[in-house]
Amino acid sequence: MKLVLIRHGESVWNLENKFTGWTDVELSENGLREARMAAKVLLENGLEFDIAYTSRLKRAIRTLWIILHEMDLMWIPVHKSWKLNERHYGALQGLNKQKTAEIYGEEQVHKWRRYVEVRPPELTKEDPRYPGHEFKYHDLKEEELPLTENLSDTEKRVLEEWHEHIVPDLLAGKRVIIAAHGNTLRALVKYLDNISSDGIANLNIPTGTPLVYELDDELKPIRHYYLSLDGTIPEGEIPKHLESSTD
Length: 247
Ligand SMILES: O=C(O)[C@@H](CO)OP(=O)(O)O
Fold this sequence. Notes:
This protein has 247 residues and is of the alpha/beta class. 35% of the residues lie in helices and 12% in strands. A hairpin with a 5-residue loop joins strand 5 (211-215) and strand 6 (221-226). Helix 2 crosses helix 3 and helix 4 crosses helix 5.
């Protein structure tokens, strides 16, 4: 069976190089175009879906909307889960990544961004960026509302969504698309391909580029590949383990 993962198109904060996390920013013009291109390449490759999963953040939701619209699949069920939200970036949310590196050093910023167990500085609950202030998250328990997260924290909630909802759908033969975020998809790929903490540090998933996983009956990956119109994906973004198929 095939599972399609897609990171949202470029957002306005990707463009401005800001730590985003749970900040609910829009797609850039380029991001909107990437979503339309993704739909086109999915259609060209004959892919179809029975159900879609996304986060509660509009950059992922809008990417999915555009894809479903372009594919004439707006009627399929869409499950929106906070557990697929981007990794919470704590007190770094809204800061420019380059300026933060100038202040704290490249090495520290690299650790915050890519070390699996390192958490960025926490928000306080008084901070306007604390998700507990948003009605969007009114149904979450206090212990579920993040003040910051490392990739392991994110992986834990992503895998809850995976096991509770996505796995049963896949096992029922449904064709699933997941429109989510750089770090939620890194967490899922880490799990599916059993990648080490060091390995996952070097994996960056490009925006708006469908990543197809072919899974066996037990949902073990057989092979995986990106789909793009010209057969290429952005320079420097090809994760080592994805350069060739694993079969
Ligand atoms: O800012 C973010 O939320 C993420 C994704 O854009 O950034 P990073 O690549 O540093 O994990």
